[in-house]
Amino acid sequence: MDNKWVYAFAEGDGKNKKLLGGKGANLCEMTRIGLNVPPGFVITTEACLACLATPERSLPDGVMAQVRDNMAALEAATGCTFGGRDKPLLVSVRSGSAMSMPGMMDTILNLGLNAETLHGLIAQTGNPRFAYDAYRRFIQLFGKVALGVPDEAFDAEFEAARQQAGVKHDIGLSAADLAGIAERFLAVVHEATGKPFPVDPHEQLEIAIKAVFNSWLGKRAVDYRREFNITPEMANGTAVNVVTMVFGNMGDDSATGVGFTRDPGTGENVMFGEYLVNAQGEDVVAGIRTPKPVAEMAREMPDLHRQLVELRDRLEGHYREVQDYEYTIERGTLYCLQTRNGKMNAAALVRSSVDMVREGLIDKRAALLRIQPEVLEQLLFPRLDPKAKARPLARGLPASPGAASGIAVFDADRAEALGRSGEKVILVREETRPEDIHGFFASQGILTSRGGKTSHAAVVARGMGKPCVAGAEGIHVDVQARRAIVGDQSFGEGTLITVDGTTGDVFIGAVPMIEATFSDELATLLGWADALARLQVLANADTPHDAERAVRFGAMGIGLCRTERMFNAVERLPIVVEMIVAETPADRQRALDKLLPIQREDFAGIFRAMAPRPVTIRLLDPPMHEFLPGERQLVEELERLRHLRETVNGLQVLHDSVDFLYRVREVHPHVDLPADPVLVDEVIAKKEAMLKKVRALFEVNPMLGHRGVRLGLTSPEIYRMQIRAILEAAADCRREGLAVHPEIMVPQVCTAQELKTVKGWVDEIRAEVEKDCGFTLDVSYGSMLEVVRACLRADALAEDAEFFSFGTNDLTQATFSFSREDAENKFLPAYTQGRILQHNPFEVLDVKGVGQLMELAVAGGRKTRPGMKVGICGEHGGHPASIAFCHHAGLSYVSCSGPRVPIARLAAAHAALNELPGHSTSL
Amino acid sequence: MDNKWVYAFAEGDGKNKKLLGGKGANLCEMTRIGLNVPPGFVITTEACLACLATPERSLPDGVMAQVRDNMAALEAATGCTFGGRDKPLLVSVRSGSAMSMPGMMDTILNLGLNAETLHGLIAQTGNPRFAYDAYRRFIQLFGKVALGVPDEAFDAEFEAARQQAGVKHDIGLSAADLAGIAERFLAVVHEATGKPFPVDPHEQLEIAIKAVFNSWLGKRAVDYRREFNITPEMANGTAVNVVTMVFGNMGDDSATGVGFTRDPGTGENVMFGEYLVNAQGEDVVAGIRTPKPVAEMAREMPDLHRQLVELRDRLEGHYREVQDYEYTIERGTLYCLQTRNGKMNAAALVRSSVDMVREGLIDKRAALLRIQPEVLEQLLFPRLDPKAKARPLARGLPASPGAASGIAVFDADRAEALGRSGEKVILVREETRPEDIHGFFASQGILTSRGGKTSHAAVVARGMGKPCVAGAEGIHVDVQARRAIVGDQSFGEGTLITVDGTTGDVFIGAVPMIEATFSDELATLLGWADALARLQVLANADTPHDAERAVRFGAMGIGLCRTERMFNAVERLPIVVEMIVAETPADRQRALDKLLPIQREDFAGIFRAMAPRPVTIRLLDPPMHEFLPGERQLVEELERLRHLRETVNGLQVLHDSVDFLYRVREVHPHVDLPADPVLVDEVIAKKEAMLKKVRALFEVNPMLGHRGVRLGLTSPEIYRMQIRAILEAAADCRREGLAVHPEIMVPQVCTAQELKTVKGWVDEIRAEVEKDCGFTLDVSYGSMLEVVRACLRADALAEDAEFFSFGTNDLTQATFSFSREDAENKFLPAYTQGRILQHNPFEVLDVKGVGQLMELAVAGGRKTRPGMKVGICGEHGGHPASIAFCHHAGLSYVSCSGPRVPIARLAAAHAALNELPGHSTSL
């Protein structure tokens, strides 16, 4: 039997998106459940792949034959004839792959038109204007998509004709104007391709199908798939949908619209969408005319509005997911042209999830799984500080919520270039097109002067969770001049602006922002997540302030408190330096005695903020030289100081008896002459001691050097001070009636003996502190696992360690022999671009290498200490894919930065839910 | 039943060294096989441990009772009475643990003497001089060992008495002199301890036993055990041997001597030893009188010499090992007092092994196992160049072969201090004592002015394989003045000297040395080793010269040829620098085109030296900045050059029209003024480009940076040049009729994709070269395993790699997160001293961590590619313990530096032999 390349809508399996593409499958599904879909058929993704696999990219045998059969069926169903002079059949040709890629693929409308069928269309509709409009649209789209004629050539002719006609909007053009435009367009194509425009509808159809197939390998599509890591397993090839044309521009009883079954900006359960009377769909999407909100239809076309509400209810009832749908009303009849799951921002996803559970539409599991954890990041974005009371320069539509500041940039290429160089940019355009997609990736936010909330800019920005203000008509964007003009004001490229996608406001300058706050719905949803997750989510926090924030984000404790941050605080650093450069143990102890009460108060503050949750404190990790200035800096400072000393000395000798300095000050009030050479000598001596120490502490490979427990063991007094500070702080808090659970964690451990030695100090100091306070402290003792050998020797380490915490940043460095700082500067970009590595392993946990070590360590640790608590506190602890791995590896908790806690909570629930039967794991 | 703490010699199990100690077990064994051993008994090591475990270190219950029973048995056997006025029984009390520790433990002779028994001894022997001599020896020894009175106090009294008597040697002292000395000694003890010398023999015996037990925890013994890694499993506690005294100093029919069953310096099968007539054993060992060679005994005491030959034959026939024995002749009767396996130098071990196999005394397995691989290092030591014809300053006995140069140092503490600071020292002493042991460890060689070839200095130096010249009587050593005087010449501390332990010569200055050559016996022995080993032994070699030497040492191929050494050669470095600083790909290619023929010739030379053995070539490994000068150096050079340029410029401007430079030269002929400022500009430009590159290449952690395959993939042209050079060289050699087997090895691999990419280049270039030469090349392709992840992903790497080679240096660094350079300077010494680590893991392979990764990798690689060739080319590849691990881990080969190849060959055989039933593994 021949391959079946083509499926009529009534034939296709609405679940088989891989074969029929998302759009095609949904058209089949809607047909099956009895919605009013224009007749049509799908050419499969298999046909696409077969076509692309041939050297000349020709359609495989049988495709066109099956297409002709299906065209005949359409003719039968509609009573029209493809290429017929009377009642000509017109179709749209649309792409559609398994994954939704909005605007990424090319579409051709009104296919089948030529000089002959045009007259049939005029005769059939009695509307020459409509027919010529359709014709000119078709020539441009076909010319562009199928024949590669650039838009600019058509746009220039169109503008010329419009100015010639003296009208402002397309709608003001007469049939004759449009006929003239069509003629001009045919000439444009002839000139650009060297051949006349194809007139045979079947030839048009074949060219169009091939063009859609080829667009799968177009730059935009390839870029998009790479950016979003869409692999061939997820989507391979595009299907082609051939659909009978219905027209929203057949008069005032015709319209076209797009809608969401709920508000995609807020998630609210209301009709949402826009429509344009007497227009084709592309007018809405491209933002050429600003459409009306759907609420107006209830007044303008009450019967059709009622039908639309029914359509919406049936779509959501069937798909149990918010739908993004398109429809056309042709002379009073409502056709549904497309539906797909609606892309929404995080707030809307959260609200609709919670609502749909309450409405009984979905269960909690579905509610959690329909939200990718990473999207919650949007909710943790800052928003404009209401107290700032900045005056907006202009206002547009609030098209994608959130706020962002950046410098204005007027084209996508420039946005990309500046974005790559680390600049924060706002992309400003009259309207955006699919070609601009790389500019979206590079920008903090989007601003357009034309188009509505369903325009390209709005849809794409919402999908990316980036703030967008659309259709700010008060702004005139002059792309050539790279300026935006608002009345008598204007700003150019490089001007710092702020867009607020929640209100639609645009500001000059950077408006102060404030942190996001949790919505009730998010709290509800994450509560469900916590109940279903097996992994606990803790936070990394180094200060009482961080700790309080972590609690607000729902952290169940602190998984990593870095004590070196405390050392680095401005007022403490001099004491730390004093400790480091100390020449004698007594001098060092003196400095440590000053640090002890400071550290004790740090820890007490954190314990108070977290009680009764556990707090894991890591003993000092970085090498000593990190607390000292660099050698070069010191050498230069000393040179300056010695020069100064000479000057001072010189002055001293020359003017010992006269008040010279004061006189100098009178003449040169800004010259800063030190009054006392002795003071300069002191500073010099101090800096010289520091330089000597810096040189003594120099390391060839500091990442693998004298740090962590290595430092702890060679300078026991430092760890002993920290241990005492922790235990005394715990005792102080216990006295205040707080339940505190400090966990003391040793960094850079590579052998059991290191751990045993420090354990001895903890036991000794704990006995002293407990004797002083008269009660028992609830303290546990554990080890970082960030050295490869520690993972391999986890069974031995677990003799003394009550818990483990993976430091996956250092562990990744050691496992790959990549120094992160060097790798990311020198070769890692080449490695990921050249696909030597799929991902930067410092961003995505390397399951095959580092993960294997982690699994060995979990098994080893729990062999010695069954059920041992094992967590992760590296940066990976906040990333969903890594969290899924941690779940599968049997970890007890993940710890991440405070703002990522909500993401981690949802990811932890996903990991648990994906483990249940019927869900494939995300590994 | 009570514990049995004491065994009579006839009772004890001669195999149970753990219980009876080595000396005790051998005394029992000799008694059992009918040799004439003085009656005695052993107090067990268990008694020692029980004693040391009590707080006051008292003897456990029952010990003294059993001792008394055994003393009664001795009385019965000898007809003498312990503490008796008539025929008093005297005993020696000697230590002896399971492991031989020469001179480490304390011994007491003539125990049982007091004022009463002394008169019995005089009556019994009719020799007052002998009796008083025995008495004064006993008082000193007991005083020192059991009561802690320092030698110096006795020595001073002895010297005073000798000078008073006006005699030169001890032998000139009369009975009355000695009686006076004994009285003085008793006073010394009384004064030092505040108590009179104990007179009750049983009290003496109990004190002596406790003193011996306590000496197990003495500083010397503890130091020795730590230095030689003697663990409690190997020897735990010392036994005490109580032996009836026999006297070699009872007249001219008495003598005492020590012997080896073969010459311990050469291994030759001849009588070897020395004796002293009318002397006690300690006189021989301490080197106080210079003894006669045993050959003289054949003339002097022919009958006793015949008995001695018989004793020797029976000892070797029984023990099947060269024996180091002590004997005493008391009034014409030969007693054997002790035997143990003889410590010999490597040459003697090798020769005696081969001889004993040929004599049918042992089999090949025993011949191999009796030699610890590391001792072969002595044979690979340099010796004095005969062509040097240096004139010796003095000559002594050739006490331990080999030659060494170093600065003279006159005491052990100083030797240790200087040795630790990296100085090469020669320890110069009048005679050495056990207290000097730390000085031996720190020295390159030993020189003494007194004592024979069995003196303390000679025995210890031979055991350590260090050159020793003993008894160089022409040298007067003045320890106080730290000078050695030879006639009218002298040298002081710090003077560079050379000792030749093979000839006994001593030289001022460093005499040139030459490499060692293989003896026929060593070749024979290593041939047996190769036949029994499973591991192959390859060499690391980077030049044709190294390759030739490796073949001489028996290498079966080259396991690691480092191409960077070739890059670093003086005449090539400029081209390499040119390549590195190249601004354009074309410039870089131009430099590489110059390097290609050079590298090709390098490889061809190595292939020719090694054919038909395999040669594994590692592609470039170090980061680029290693080929450039340091930043600071360049900055300084540039400063100087710019200053020069200014000067030149100044001259140019001022004296443009006159021949100024020539005039300057006439006045200041030594001022080096460059003739051409343009040249200086060129140099400046070059250095500036270099500095720019050095700054661009700077890395925070170079060990984990842009190097190895990371560099290969980002600069493919370098690896491609090297691959071409290897393959073209192989083709050239094939054309010459040589069988060449290059193996191309990629360093720093961490993912399979890296290996696959380079493999693509190899395949491509190989096809080109084979097309050009018209025949197929025998090339294989493999990967270093030196990155942790490579070990974890070995299964995937083995898809493309045909072999693996562990780089255990880098692997150890990454596994421990220790940068070797930093660790060994900053914290590793503290780690090994504090027993956080048992060994420096860069010296002894870390089996528990790194070894575990290696086992994972071997299993992974062979899962994909059964029987895959896996080797090791890190420094550990030449160390016996690590080789044993490699054998057990199933590796195919080890590769080490050329001079360690013989050691590795023997170690590989050991690993295989230890695996056979009846031998415990060395792990």
Produce the secondary structure layout.
The structure is a homodimer of 923-residue chains.
Chain A: E1 6-8, H1 17-32, E2 40-43, H2 45-53, H3 63-78, E3 91-97, E4 107-111, H4 115-125, H5 128-145, H6 151-165, H7 175-193, H8 201-215, H9 219-227, E5 238-244, E6 255-260, E7 272-277, H10 281-286, E8 292-293, H11 295-300, H12 302-319, E9 323-330, E10 333-341, H13 346-358, H14 364-369, E11 383-384, E12 394-395, E13 397-400, E14 403-409, H15 412-420, E15 425-429, H16 437-442, E16 445-448, H17 456-464, E17 468-470, E18 476-478, E19 483-486, E20 489-492, E21 496-500, E22 505-508, E23 513-514, H18 520-532, E24 536-540, H19 544-552, E25 558-562, H20 563-568, H21 573-581, H22 585-610, E26 614-618, H23 631-654, H24 660-667, H25 677-697, H26 708-714, H27 716-735, E27 741-746, H28 752-773, E28 780-785, H29 788-792, H30 794-797, E29 803-806, H31 808-816, H32 820-826, H33 828-833, H34 850-864, E30 869-872, H35 880-888, E31 893-897, H36 901-915
Parallel strand pairs in A: 14-15, 15-16, 16-17, 24-25, 24-31, 25-26, 26-27, 27-28, 28-29, 29-30, 30-31
Antiparallel strand pairs in A: 1-2, 2-5, 3-4, 3-5, 6-7, 6-9, 7-8, 9-10, 11-23, 12-22, 13-17, 14-21, 18-19, 19-20, 21-22
Helix pairs in contact in A: 4-5, 5-7, 6-7, 13-18, 18-36, 19-22, 21-22, 22-27, 23-25, 26-27, 26-28, 27-28, 35-36
